[in-house]
Amino acid sequence: MAVAATPAFAQSAGDWTLGVGVHQVDPKSDNGALAGGTLPLSIGSDAKPSVTFEYFVRDNLGIEVLGALPFKHDIAVKGVGKVGETKHLPPTIALQYHFNSAGKVSPLLGAGLNYTTFFSEDTTGALAGTDLKLDDSWGLAAHAGLDFKVSERSAVRVDVRWADIDTKVKVDGASLGTANIDPLVYGMAYVHTF
User: Fold this and answer.
1) What single DSSP character describes residue 127?
2) Is residue 8 part of a domain?
3) Which H helix or E strand runs over 118?
4) CA-to-CA distance for 66 and 19, rounded, in angstroms?
5) Cα angle value 165/170/171 (rounded, 5°)
6) Residue 126: left if φ>0, alpha if ψ -120 to 50, beta else—which one?
7) Burial of 181 (0-12, 13-18, 19+ CB in 10 A)
8) What's the CA gap between 136 and 115, in Å, rounded?
9) What is the pTM of this model?
10) Phi and psi based region of residue 59 (left: phi greater than 0; alpha: psi -120 to 50; beta: remaining)
11) Element (H or E) spanning 4, and its range?
């Protein structure tokens, strides 16, 4: 009887989840300065649809992979204006723990690794006609969220992520320095457990 009265885990070993939602990448306010500190950068925000897959290796402990459609960011130099734009994909893998997984509200915390690849760099304004290149980035990532249960096997998740994203900036092959993006990523998703 005691065993029967114990609530079942919402996320048990061997379960996996699929999450579909929207996330906004919001770079930190100080993105560094190029050319020996003479060109302070400002990198814009963007929101795109996102998807997560999580596999539970133990009860409440899962490995999650985050993906999304490419984010697009304006690149500006303070005092000069927009000088370019880029797209990026930031797949992230994290180990995360779900607290109170049998409850109506379940917090989660995670940490992992982010890989960001930049592509489709274009220039405009003061850099029009030059070749802009941003190197790919590896860095740590952190994740915190709340799952609000809507049925036995589904929830609405609100979450925030942080990723260490630094990229070397080159114009016409010459290195100008490093852009420190280090964004917070805010989102909401529908998550279903299989």
Assistant:
1) G
2) no
3) strand 105-123
4) 9
5) 140
6) alpha
7) buried
8) 7
9) 0.87
10) beta
11) helix 2-5
Taken in order 65, 68, 70, 75, the sign of the CA dihedral is negative
Indicate which CATH number applies to the domain containing 55: 2.40.160.20
List pLDDT tens digits, range 104-122: 999 999 999 999 999 999 9
| 7 located within any domain | no
What's the CA gap between 136 and 81, in Å, rounded? Answer: 24
Structural domains of the chain, count:
1
Containing 2, the helix (H) or strand (E) segment is helix 2-5
Bridge partners, 2 (sequence order): none
- Determine the Cα–Cα distance for residues 59 and 9; give it in Å rounded to an integer: 7
Contact 85, 121 (CB under 8 A): yes
| Nearest C-alpha neighbor of 40 from the set 85, 87, 80 | 80
Q: Which domain holds residue 95?
A: 20-193
pLDDT band at 10 (very low <50, low <70, confident <90, very high): low
Instruction: Report CA dihedral (145, 166, 24, 46) to the nearest 10 degrees.
Output: 180
Q: Is 11 part of a structural domain of the chain?
A: no
Q: Which amino acid is at 26?
A: D
In a domain, 2, yes or no: no
pLDDT digits (tens, 9 = 90+) for 131-165: 999 999 999 999 999 999 999 999 999 999 999 99
